[in-house]
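Today's session is about reading a structure prediction critically. Students often jump straight to the picture, but the first step is always the sequence itself: look for stretches that repeat, for charged clusters, for runs of hydrophobic residues. Only then move on to the predicted structure, which in these notes is written as discrete structure tokens rather than atom positions. Here is the chain we will use throughout the hour.
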Amino acid sequence: MLKTKPARIALLLCLLCIVALLTVTVVKAVEANGYHKVLIHEAGDPLPPAVRFLKNSDADAIYLTDPATIDVNRIGLQNLEIRYRNRTLQVTLDIRDTTPPAAVPVELDLKPGETAKPSDFVTDVRDASAVEIRFEQEPDFKKIGTQPVAVVLTDIAGNSRTLSTTLRLSALKAAVEIEADSTGTLPDPQLLLKDAFAGCVVDWVGSGPNLTQLGGQVVEATVDGRIYRSEVIVVDTVAPTGSAVDVAAWVGDELTADLFVTDIQDATPVTVTFAKEPDGTREGSQPVHLLLTDAAGNQASLTSSLTLTKDNEAPIIYGAKKYTLYIGQTATYKKDVLAIDNRDGEVEIKVDSSGVNPRVEGTYQAVYSATDRAGNSSSVDVEVVVKQRTVTMEELHELADQVLSEITTPDKSLYLKAWDIYTYVNLRLTYTGTSDKTDWMREARRGIVDGVGDCFTYYAMSNLLLDRIGMQTLSVERASKPGEARHFWHLVNWGEGWYHFDACIHIPKLESFMLTTAQMDAFSARVGKDNYYYRFDRDNYPASETKIVNDISVVGPY
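Below is the predicted structure for this chain, in token form.
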């Protein structure tokens, strides 16, 4: 560290000498061609700062020539003066034009007969010098429709640029927006006409635009008999409408938004969604907010109501009763038995016959059970009697098929085939008042072969023949009280619900074919006390239909 005054003075003098030496060096560099005597500059660009003339870009310089007098768009050499430190330098700005003109192309849409200049096809022309505009090839101003046009722009320096655009000649507008419409009504083609052609006769060519299809469609129309093309842009700016529907369902049911809306109106397809998914596990009522969205994205809101009920009711098993199983015969436990649930309709029946020995005569127990999707279950214990068979099912099928080939034809409906069976059984059998009510197979054969028996024989014959035509049946037995005779018949379903079928003869006469329970009750009220004739355990069977298909006096095609 310098501690004496003379030493500090000596150091300062050294520094001043160094600065002076550097200054002299820079000046000498300028004097020794340390600057650009000529600077090339692009016409139209801003005037460059004076320091651009110096080779040392860190130096500083100013124009002595008034910048306002310097025309940067004038091509050629311009002599200027700049000052660097205390020196005046003579320099030259060499202004050149190497950039082609720029412009924005314009698509022209003219009426037939009009013409246009090349300059009409461009706008916002930009260049440092004057620009000449010409067609690369002159368009055909007599050609109807759209054609390409090339416009050439050339400046004084000879720089060129070619721009592409189009020329359209038509009596119709290039494009027209029309609101979507699903009614099938065509819009007025006058909408397409340019103003200069208002009042001309205009008609659609072909089917016109499809107003249910969003977007652009090329269409044709005649104007005073001449065909022109245009574009119809189908837009949808109208939100859909609909009516809210209050829905009652079960807890756990699958719920879709469309269940809550009806009478949806819109020109385009509409999607229904939940604004917020409802709670499908909550009992009771809750509001449901919906969104209707059409193909264009227009939306409408609706509010509906959802009421959910928990399913606590088990299925009801119908037709489960004492079952006879013949040794050597395949068990058909589920025949004439069905389970109906208050929510799920018909559900699967399972049979536990593990306690039945089908090879040893005796009386056993089987269990019929059914479970709905909510987990509610019901079961019925059924007595199963295993006994030796007196006739095989194969023998019965052969007999039945022979009878059916004689009394009906395959082309008939199930209803009419059942009528043929009713007529055959009713007339074939002679009522003797006796039968083996423990063996329906034996009685079916006896009725067909021997033609004698009682109401159980009528039932057994009907059971065999109805099964062979594929009729769904349930066997019904009278709920007899002590001292009352037994009686047997069927509930049948040919696809229109359950009806009573009893081919047995009656006194007084009754045509008991496809009758409702109300019709059966009316007959029972006329014969015997306590309406006993068609008294049965109604809890064990599905309700019959109420629609009358047989007025009892006349039976014809249904």
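Discussion point for the tutorial: The chain has six domains: 29-96, 102-169, 175-235, 241-309, 316-387, 393-540.
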